[in-house]
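In this section we walk through a basic example: taking a raw amino acid sequence and producing a predicted 3D structure, encoded as discrete structure tokens. The instruction is simple. Fold the sequence below.
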Amino acid sequence: MDGMLSQEEINALLAGMDSSGGGDAGGGDAPAADAGGDAPAAEAPSGGGGGFVAGEIDESLLNDEEKDAIGEVANISMGSSATTLYSLVNQKVNITTPQVELANWNTVLQNYEKPCVFIQIKYTVGLEGTNILILKEHDVMVITDLMMGGDGTNTEGEVGELQLSAISEAMNQMMGAAATSLSTMIGEKVDISPPEATLLDMIDDDPSEISEFLTGTFCRVTFKLQIGELVDSTLMQLYPIDFAKSLKDTISTEAPAEEAAPAPAPAPAPAAPDMGMPMPDAGAAMPGAMPGMDPSMMQGMPQMGMPQMGMPMMPMGMPMMQPQMMGANVQPAQFQSFAAGNPMMAAGENIGLIKDVPLEVTVELGRTAKAISDILDFAPGTIIELEKVAGEPVDVLVNGKFVAKGEVVVIEESFGVRVTEIVQ
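The resulting token sequence is shown next.
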């Protein structure tokens, strides 16, 4: 009467709507599907867009040892990448210890904000494979704004070609540093191709169009990314299973142990120096022996050599013969001069003893002379003219001594001097 439905009428309408999917449209008690008919289609996962439904995650594809090895590689790589990113954005960068797990496309959609920037990197030398970095759109806007000289707060709007180009360059340098770290780890050169950055909403995208390995189970490495006070987010890295296994095999391959070298033979005892004179035979008469002396009496007696005099071995207790008697060529000893500037003395100096002595280095732009009255008139804004011409090299002094000339340069926010000439 008043145009409103009663509760019975509402229940009847709802029962009719429930039965309309499988049986007769008007049958309130009809089942949702005939016993011999097709069952209702399974509801797609909430994260799966574009009609793509990922299969189950096969946890047996990677064991704990392989996950630990992948985490070690990712940790070392991202440590180098964080240092590189700091130099690009001039902000403190912290990338925490990675978490390694198996995932599929649906889990990526459920655990990450949309849209995202996908950066694909391919290894060209040393390793064979590809990996994908995923950054949130806001994080990309902050990083690119800092790279372009901003303060990181200009994040309005959407990621465009300019931001994609800038983040590709940042990832190129970051992953290049990571490749260098990998090279050191495996002892082989590792190189990458230029990264390709793409903005994706992920909901309606087919993962096979991004990379074929995203259609199945893959390895996901998650990092906590912090950039100053501007970014406190998550960075995700995706590896194909076969590439993840190859990383583990690469770093676990050890060089064959070197065969133990045989113990060196004991060095022979040093031979007695040859004095250029024959040793007397035990049965022969000793040179310089007293006439009528039995040679057997001298056997076993200690002898004293005089090689510097060119004299034969003499028995102890026997009077030594003078050099003049032996006809030796005796000359006065020659000693090295201690005169200053001796090149032999300079070569023998141990400069290492004073290498840690601190010296004061001063760069002098120029000088001028002013009267006291002029100096008393100094005020903020006063210009003092120096004797040097603009563009002329500045002087570099060490402990007040003029040692070099150079030109002024700017390094980030500090001044520096590039040495152009060493003053002799």
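Looking at the output, two observations stand out. The two ends are 114 Å apart (CA to CA). The chain has ten helices and 14 strands. In the next section we compare this with other chains.
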